[in-house]
Amino acid sequence: MVTIKELTELDRSKFSDAAGGWAAVSNRGSAAMDRVNNEMIAKLQATQQGYTDEAARKSLARLSSNFQYIHAECGLIRTALSGLASELEGPQRKLKEALADAAALKFTVEANGAVKYPATVPYAPNLSGAQPKGVPFAASADPNEGKARAIANRIVAALSEANEIDGRYARALAKLKTDATLKKPNWADVARDTKEIQSAAGKYLKESDIPKGKSPKENAAWWGRLSQAQREEYISVHPASIGALDGLPATARDEANRLVLAEARGSAEQQLRDLDRGPKPKYEHHINPITGLPLQGKGSKRLEWENKKKYLQDQLAGIKQIQNRFDQTGEGGLPKAYLLGFDVKGFGRAIVANGNPDTAEHTAVYVPGTTARLSNAENDMEKALALWRQSNAMPGNPSVSTVTWIGYSAPQTARPFEGGHIIPEASSLSYADKAAPQLSKFLDGVRTAQGGPHASHLTVVGHSYGTTAIGDASVNGGGLGADDIVAVASPGMLVKHADELDAPKGHVWSEAASWTKDQVPAGGKIVRLGGDNELTPWLSPLNPLSQNVPSDRVFGANIMQTDSDDHGGYWKSDSVSLWNQAAVVTGNYDSVKRD
Q1: Among 351, 401, 326, which residue's Cα sits nearest to residue 37?
Q2: What is the distance between the alpha carbons of residues 579 and 5, in angstroms, rounded to a whole number?
Q3: What is the DSSP pairing of strand 294-297 with strand 284-287?
Q4: Model confidence pLDDT, tens digit, residues 28-46
Q5: Fewer CB atoms inside 10 A, N or C side of the chain?
Q6: C-beta contacts of 122-127 below 8 A and 24+ residues apart
Q7: Least confident of 121-125, 392-396, 447-451, 514-518
Q8: What is the pLDDT of residues 343-352, one digit of tens each?
């Protein structure tokens, strides 16, 4: 229990100084992790190959993870100590004020909080007139008694508040301990520790103060008002909320989302271990009504168990694919990767940048289409990587960042009967409608973090259904603010002409293989993902001629040559298709090979 003496004499600066010490350790851990990733591993990737070098890279990766663990745990301790010092200021001030008031009245405050006061005259005259003979003066309450009682109550309240604060933080800090026998960081434990500090420091570092539903400019303004210490504490204690804020610097979002990713990995691994160690629901046996022989089938509990396991395995697959991209830094000159968004809910989301978009001269945001999901992130990240390599090699030594935006719930089936779906999900506009505001806000956030619409040349590149999401964002979601739009194998962008899209006139580009190699543009017309043209009133809605898509010359886009042999071949190394995209991304319009 906190006593009057302890609270009065408490030097809160000792907590603040200790917090500063833990902050220094946390920041050194973060800096060391960056050095390992971007200097040691990157240089090793760029210069060495072989079994020995692979073993060295694995060792360095473990070292990087250890430093990140130090950064995370020390950051939590730092925030707890800062919160404790900050919150104790209130009850300490209240106690000192109560003691000062007692001293001014010449009251005595004892160690247990009791307040002694000098007695005043026990009786007071009847001010209404002469007192009747034989009747004593009317007794009145001692005014000092009430004052003493009020001061005592203030002392009790201050001590109670201090004890509640002390207990809350003490319980949380007591749980921040690591098993010394661990051979690698326990990220599931970090996630639990984070929740403990979120709860303990909830009054100090309010999650409700983090903007929700605000514009990227409002998010950036809030971030700009914080001190560096506050920013570091928010990243440490509320990484998921900070990592999701459009408009914040890429470095801040990356730091926060890497913590979220590490904790998600630890959680998924722990849940999988628990599933495998626990009882596995058995298959249910049924009798075939015709043959009378037993049939083995999956009961609902077995299906639930298998589905949960598959869901966790998919999470880990996507997380490992993102980690592989982190580990590729330096390989072939690849720049650092920035994790601008991450979430495991549903099919999962991942937004990964090659190079810092905040400082790049040219930024390309790639929006994938059908089957985009966390567990398939590698496929889409490879496309953005191929675009970075080609763009980086363009004339003029351009500074380029390419971003894979798996930031929406994409349709997962493209062909009838695929995955048991009679109607393909990719024929529905609902996915694009939901993606539109998310994409618009992300692009606005990129522009905000860059410093405005003219700070970088921004190109939005879409593939397949991703172009439909881009078109929806352009006309319904809030706009794109793009300098160029590249539509690759587009099934339609919801408009009949390129001039209706949110890009300067003449800056919409299209490439698509012939319909014998890629049927998606024609299929998009049939399911009406394009825009109605002037022939529509005289044609059946199911007639492909009633719709315009970007690969139609009448659509008005710049038609580029392509040498893709199928729907996914537009990012092959040294291909004309990839060259043309890179030429647009870097503003080398005269180098585009037009069709």
Answers
A1: 326
A2: 75
A3: antiparallel
A4: 999 998 888 877 776 676 6
A5: N
A6: none
A7: 121-125
A8: 999 999 999 9
Strand partners, 547: 532
Cβ atoms within 10 Å of 416's Cβ, excluding its own:
10
Contact call for residues 363 and 459 (beta carbons, < 8 A): yes
Q: Per-residue DSSP letters for 61-82?
A: HHHHHHHHHHHHHHHHHHHHHH
Tokens found for residue 32? 């060391």
Please, what's the b/e burial string for 568-577 (b: 16 or more CB within 10 A of its CB; e: otherwise)?
A: ebbbeeebbb
Q: What is the bridge-based pairing of β-strands 362-367 and 457-463?
A: parallel
pLDDT of the residue at 424: 82
For tokens 């809910």, the residue is 345
| pLDDT for the residue 283 | 75
CA distance 401 to 388: 7
pTM for the whole structure: 0.88
Q: How far apart are CA 480 and CA 407, in angstroms?
A: 15
Residues found in the chain: 595
Tell me the Cα Rg of the chain. 33
> What is the amino acid identity at position 303?
L
C-alpha–C-alpha distance, residues 456 and 357, integer Å: 8
Average pLDDT, the chain: 90
CB 103, CB 149: distance < 8 Å: no
Q: Centre a 10 Å sphere on the Cβ of residue 539 and count the other Cβ atoms it contains.
A: 14
Burial of 587 per CB tally in 10 Å (0-12, 13-18, 19+): middle
Q: Mind listing the pLDDT tens digit for each residue in 56-69?
A: 777 887 888 889 99
For 572-582, the pLDDT digits (tens) are 999 999 999 99
Nearest to 462 by CA among 353, 384, 400, 346: 384
Please report which helix (H) or strand (E) contains residue 84, including its range: helix 51-104
Domain boundaries 338-415+433-591, corresponding CATH code: 3.40.50.1820
Distance (Å, rounded) from C-alpha 307 to C-alpha 305? 6
Specify the residue for token string 């209130």. Answer: 90
First to last CA, the chain: 81
Amino acid at 116: K
222 residue type, one letter: W
Residues 6+ apart with CB under 8 A from 50: none
